[in-house]
Amino acid sequence: MFINKIKIRLILGAILFSSGLYGQRILSLQQSIEQAMKTSPRIQGSRLSLIQSEENLKAQRATLKSNFNLNVRPLEYSHDRIFNEQFSEWYTVENYSSLGNFRVSQPILWTDGVLSLNNSLQYRENSSTGGNSSGFKGFSNSLDLTLEQPLFTYNRTKLELKELELSYENATLSYALQELSVENMVTQAFFKVYQTQMALNTSREEYQNRKESYDIIKNKVDAGLTAKEELYQAELDLMTSESSMKDNEVAFENDKDNFKQMLGIPLEEEIMVLADVSVLPVDVQLNIAIEQGLSNRMELRQRQIAIENGQFDIIKTNALNEFKGDLVLKFGLIGENEEFQNMFNEPTNNQQVSLGLIIPLWDWGEKKARLKAAQAALEQTQNDLRDEEVDIKLTIRQVFRSLENNLRQISIARKNLENAELTYEINLEKYKNGDLTSMDLNLVQNQLTTKKNGLTNSIISYKLELLNMKIQSMYDFENQVPVTPQFKK
């Protein structure tokens, strides 16, 4: 019943406040958050970082697919004068050629090797003035299948893909954290505007009450029923109340401008916030909050990603000056003939087996030192993860206690306001009957104003703390759903 009164007063106050203003934009909390999500510089920067990580991951995955390449050299001509040491004579070589090379390469994710198919077609016309050479004119074609496989080392392709996947996941988590951060900032700014808006409405109501009191005492003084000192005091109270109302107007306009700046709304646009100040106690269970926080807090996953990246750094560091090898297997056919259609009449096998080894001998302790540094960094990251878990538990427990206390404060504030309203009505009647001085009524009026603002502030504190619990536990207890970001695998 009391909450309904509060709602009615809020709506009436909003109507009174907006009278004479046209084109005013009324914002709810949800609308404010949605507006900020579109215009916030933090969100935009985080969104661009997310897009960058996503596109890098797409590009890396694309490199794992077959790559088709065609290299064409339509014409190549050379005319050289060459000295032949064997016959001790100079001769002239003239060469015309055309070349086309088609290559299909397929990276092998599981072995870090590359399997490629190459076909090279060439036309050559060669002549020489020296020796007994009569020159050559015809076609040649080479077709081969090649496997290039690193040995005795880590899979660089697989590791790089995993790093990009973790980078994308981390960017997704950062974006979700920025959304929660913006939601938190906007909510606080929204309720700050609402508080000053309500304080302004309350001060206007108080000013009207002071004015009525002043009119009453003025009539009494004019009728000779009260001393002029009472009128002087009532006039002073009225001026003080008007000054307080003007101060609240300034504070309200300043808070509105700051809020409009945060939302990216033109400062010239008139706005008003319309908040739901009803309080429906939310059932928050401490054990569920801690369990959800430890399971879903994005900061923990980011710490785990940092640990995985630290493990990758150790793998890379361990590969410094490492013993490793390269295996190349090649099998193909090559044919040549003056006639194109006869190139493979008498083909020749084209085979290659190559095994290369790199054997480190001495690195003056570089690898050992860098490995210890990487291990120390990994251990520090693991310690940070454990500390983060403890901080999460601690914070959730504190927020839970604060929520319970806020509910008690709301009940107390509501009762105080009911008592203050009854007290004011009783004392106002006494004042009208001449049984109470204006100074005494002033104290009662101030008490009523304080209790009204106190109830509003208590409700807002509870709502803000409920949002804080949502952020700390990553669980929305109002809707009974977890708050977790979704990202593509």
Spell out the key features of this protein:
489 residues, alpha+beta, Outer membrane efflux proteins (OEP), 2 domains, 6-stranded antiparallel sheet, two-stranded parallel ribbon, 9 helices, 10 strands, 21% strand, elongated
Write the layout of secondary structure elements.
Layout: H1 2-18, E1 25-27, H2 29-39, H3 41-63, E2 67-84, E3 89-108, E4 113-128, E5 136-151, H4 156-222, H5 228-263, E6 271-273, H6 286-296, H7 298-318, E7 324-337, E8 348-358, H8 366-432, H9 438-473, E9 475-476, E10 481-482
Parallel strand pairs: 1-6
Antiparallel strand pairs: 2-3, 3-4, 4-5, 5-7, 7-8, 9-10
Helix pairs in contact: 2-4, 3-4, 4-5, 4-7, 4-9, 6-8, 7-8, 8-9
**Can you tell me the number of structural domains?**
2
Number of helices: 9
| Rg computed from alpha carbons, rounded to a whole number of angstroms | 41 Å
CATH topology label of the largest domain: Outer membrane efflux proteins (OEP)
Gross morphology: elongated
What structural category do the secondary elements indicate?
alpha+beta
Structural description of this entry:
The protein has 489 residues and is an alpha+beta fold. It folds into 2 domains: 2-56 and 160-309 and 375-482, Outer membrane efflux proteins (OEP), CATH 1.20.1600; 68-108 and 111-153 and 324-359, no CATH class. 59% of the residues lie in helices and 21% in strands. It has helices spanning 2-18, 29-39, 41-63, 156-222, 228-263, 286-296, 298-318, 366-432, 438-473, and strands at 25-27, 67-84, 89-108, 113-128, 136-151, 271-273, 324-337, 348-358, 475-476, 481-482. A 6-stranded antiparallel beta sheet has the order 2-3-4-5-7-8, with no helix packed on it. Strand 9 and strand 10 form a beta hairpin. The longest helix is centred in the middle third of the chain and has 67 residues, at 156-222. The protein is elongated. It starts with a helix and ends in a 7-residue tail after the last strand.
